[in-house]
Amino acid sequence: MNNCPPSVFAALIFILLNAFIWLTLGIIIVFDGHPALPDEPLIKGIMAYLFLAAAGILLGLFVLLGKRRRIAYFLVVGFLITTSLWLVFDDFGVVDLVVLAINLVPIPLLIKDRDWYLQASSGVNGSQ
Question: Of 2, 31, 116, 123, which has the fewest Cβ atoms less than 10 A away?
């Protein structure tokens, strides 16, 4: 990430924050700390797994974006747009508004610096 613009750094921080939110929510569900979920263990287990998987995916995309992998750029933009739509069409509250903002802020930053992410990396792999 040598010589990355400040907006790239900001977008990566928001992506990392987003992954932290998914991880935190998954851990809260694992330890049965979310009062609004149904009592069925199968549903809680599936939700916890999906949230922890989302955190892992975002962390992986965070690393790959820093290495300027082309596919990571498109996957993270798609992920952020998809989760933003899910948030809007779910029960919406103040916490959802904060998470939505954390989802939406990096999208224009990613689009603004698209050329930086999509140019060839200067590492060993060359054009990846």
Answer: 2
Contact 65, 15 (CB under 8 A): yes
Q: Exposed, middle or buried by CB within 10 Å (0-12, 13-18, 19+), for 27?
A: middle
Both structure tokens of 21: 């939110």
- pLDDT tens profile 50-79: 999 999 999 999 999 989 999 999 999 999
**Residue 14: other Cβ atoms inside 10 A:** 20
Exposure class string for 79-92: b at 16+ Cβ within 10 A, else e = bbeebbeebeeeee
Amino acid residing at 123: G
Q: How confident is the model over 2-42, as pLDDT tens digits?
A: 678 899 999 999 999 999 999 999 999 988 887 777 778 89
